[in-house]
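4.2 Preliminary Data

To establish feasibility before requesting continued support, the project team ran the inverse folding procedure on a target of 453 residues. The structure was first converted into the token representation described in Section 3, and no sequence information of any kind was made available to the design step. The complete token record follows.
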């Protein structure tokens, strides 16, 4: 199986160098592609039994004339340099099927391979819902916590591979739109290339409208709220974005669907001592809102970043509602990075999931709070008996779910429209009245059109 270059950075330690050739002879390569996929369900999670796998990629133009170790050091970020050096010396990283060592100079036409004992993180065992299906297209309701494509530590635990496992090895799903791993909701899966190209053209031409739902901290303002703050990628390594004046233009229209105040909290607020800490604790415990989101542009993490800037981050967002990363203000109205410098934010976030548990600072109702007490995924201190890989604990609920949902896709001309059911977290709490469906997009579209591009 040929993988992208990024796949060569698989997060495993070197295997024992037993019988690995070191004299340039052919190395053992295991292009394993097990069928049926080694899935099993346990504790509400879809798991993949560890397996041997060889990643392969052709030498890129920018790699030519550079040493093999130098390329891995600059291109791949997950493992220390010593790991890659050991792999090259032991025969786990080879070129053209032969062990060449870390000082080998790459040339045009070289095939770089990396064999590893692969450990995939578990994902939600929630089934992939089907909203509509015809001869050309499947409209699915994607569960949260599952990536769309193989990427990073995920290979078989992704939407594409799960659908293939369900429908047969000959089924070739072609995703037409993309959702982040933690985001749930509507996705279009084409059954053939022409259908994928047609939908791709429609989305690219911006003739398709998208609506999301988010559950955010506090009482979101009334009416249509337009945020047109530019967004900057401040750390490609961490995929971290924030509002910055020198970022790319971005615009989102928001409208509150419902507000649900907290229960049993008025006494705590009355007893506050007036300190900044108490005021912030009270602010993050002012209940939550369900907010409709109409993205006019399509920047990475746009909804999450704009909601954070407005002072109402998504309630269980492990990045943008994290006090350990952003401080008590949670990044509100800080376009100039005065309250939190980029360097400080990047440094704090880089520790999440390793030394510390990623944790969203938010007010939770009792049910969600029980989930939140579960330990988030981090290194367990144990090693794999086969390959000596450091093992991770199971992900906590906050690592599997983000309260952001792709609710609606529709053709601007009215040719078609698909709306998913509201996710459970957007429904009214038990014993409380509230909306269970949304209306049309006219108000949001009208607000988006009042500003110049």
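Position-by-position output of the design step:
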């Amino acid at each position: 199986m040929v993988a992208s270059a990024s796949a060569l950075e698989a997060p495993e330690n070197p295997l024992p160098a037993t019988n690995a050739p070191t004299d340039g002879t052919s190395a053992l390569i295991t292009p394993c592609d097990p069928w049926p996929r080694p899935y099993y369900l346990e504790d509400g999670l879809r798991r993949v039994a560890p397996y041997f796998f060889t990643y392969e990629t052709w030498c890129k133009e920018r790699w030519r004339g550079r040493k093999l170790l130098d390329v891995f050091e600059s291109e791949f970020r997950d493992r220390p340099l010593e790991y890659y050096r050991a792999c090259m010396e032991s025969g786990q990283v080879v070129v053209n099927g032969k062990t060449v060592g870390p000082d080998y100079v790459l040339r045009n036409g070289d095939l770089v391979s990396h064999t590893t004992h692969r450990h995939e993180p578990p994902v939600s065992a929630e089934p992939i819902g089907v909203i509509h299906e015809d001869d050309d297209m499947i409209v699915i309701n994607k569960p949260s916590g599952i990536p769309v494509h193989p990427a990073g530590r995920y290979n078989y635990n992704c939407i594409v591979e799960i659908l293939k496992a369900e429908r047969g090895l000959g089924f070739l799903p072609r995703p037409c739109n993309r959702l982040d791993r933690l985001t749930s909701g509507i996705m279009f899966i084409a059954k053939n290339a022409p259908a994928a190209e047609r939908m791709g053209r429609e989305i690219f031409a911006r003739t398709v409208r998208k609506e999301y739902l988010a559950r955010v901290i506090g009482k979101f303002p009334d009416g249509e709220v337009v945020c047109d703050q530019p967004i900057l990628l401040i750390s490609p390594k961490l995929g971290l974005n924030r509002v910055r004046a020198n970022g790319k233009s971005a615009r989102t229209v928001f409208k509150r669907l419902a507000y649900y105040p907290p229960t049993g909290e008025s006494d705590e607020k009355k007893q506050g001592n007036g300190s900044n800490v108490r005021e912030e604790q009270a602010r993050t415990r002012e209940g939550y809102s369900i907010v409709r989101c109409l993205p006019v542009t399509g920047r990475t993490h746009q909804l999450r970043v704009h909601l954070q800037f407005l002072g109402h981050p998504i309630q269980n967002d492990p990045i943008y509602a994290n006090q350990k990363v952003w401080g008590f203000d949670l990044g509100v109205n800080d376009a100039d990075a005065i309250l939190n410098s980029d360097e400080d934010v990047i440094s704090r976030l880089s520790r999440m999931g390793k030394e510390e548990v990623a944790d969203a600072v938010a007010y939770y109702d009792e049910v969600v709070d029980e989930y939140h007490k579960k330990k988030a995924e981090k290194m367990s201190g144990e090693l794999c008996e086969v390959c000596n890989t450091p093992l991770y604990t199971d992900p906590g609920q906050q690592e599997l779910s983000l309260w952001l949902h792709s609710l609606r896709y529709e053709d601007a001309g009215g040719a078609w429209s698909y709306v998913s059911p509201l996710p459970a977290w957007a429904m009214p709490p038990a014993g409380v009245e509230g909306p269970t469906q949304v209306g049309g997009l006219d108000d949001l579209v009208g607000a988006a059109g009042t500003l110049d591009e």
